[in-house]
């Protein structure tokens, strides 16, 4: 089944957003790719450009307890036995508005045994002088309070050099360590003295990262920025977000079973909560009936 896609452009930026999953299939600045995209007839590979809600990352065994009630989600990452990246990345979204430089899509998470809550989502994607901006609104339209989290899943591209040569600036002092086999949270660790300390920008090299970070340094206005540069090309890509996302997942896209797709870009995913938040409750957004949550992020060319 073919799904609609929507092109927007302005101020040198151009993007294509899919009606399926509100995925960002393509993002360029003056023709230069800012993310790893995929073709119009290709299924979304490796969650490239996915819209992730109502939880980011993984829930172990697909099981969680909320307000004293146990729930069980479908396992969609069988090799690690987890429920991965929410419920809306592979469902149709409805067009709300489309202009030359913006598109707004909406969908409603309907109640089910696995997630018995009703959450209406709106995502506005727009381009302008500051870059490619996504603004997300979640409204609890049900009668019960609902657990909620959200993040994007872009693989940023700095330039034409190999990812190992790109220079990363990640203003985060704390990393969430994970199990080697299932990538489930173990505990917080100071990045000082670890391979995950990119507070001072330096080349990625051969480090492998698939971790959530917090303790994020922000500017006076409360914004955090991750910068990724290709020294050979003199180009780069940045991602900026506000305090509504106290976490960011970084992934060097190491895919040994898919060598053609490995380390093509760096996933940078500002998150409202860490992995397993449905069970830990850490930074979990709890939407009361009628309550709205807003967040957003911007990708820009350097």
Describe the fold and architecture:
- With 302 residues, this protein is mostly beta strands.
- It is built from 1 helix and 27 strands.
- Strands 10-11-12-13-27-23-22-17-20 form a 9-stranded antiparallel sheet, with no helix packed on it. It has a 6-stranded antiparallel sheet with strand order 16-25-24-21-18-19, with no helix packed on it. A 4-stranded antiparallel sheet has the order 1-2-3-4, with no helix packed on it.
- The model has no long low-confidence stretch (mean pLDDT 97).
Largest sheet: 9 strands, antiparallel
Order of helices and strands: EEEEEEEEEEEEEEEEEEEEEEEEEHEE
Given as residue ranges, the uncertain stretches (5+ residues, pLDDT < 50) are none
Please state the overall shape, judged from the principal axes of the Cα atoms: globular
- Count of all domains: 1
Whole-number radius of gyration? 18 Å
**Count of extended strands:** 27
Roughly what is the average pLDDT, rounded to an integer? 97
Give the CATH class: Mainly Beta
Q: Quickly give the CATH architecture.
A: Distorted Sandwich
Side-by-side strand order of the widest sheet: 10-11-12-13-27-23-22-17-20
Helix tally?
1
Distance between the termini: 37 Å
CATH topology: Beta-galactosidase, Chain A, domain 5
Percentage of residues in strands: over 45%
* Percentage of residues assigned to helices: under 10%
Structural class: mainly beta
What is this structure, in a nutshell?
It is built from one helix and 27 strands.
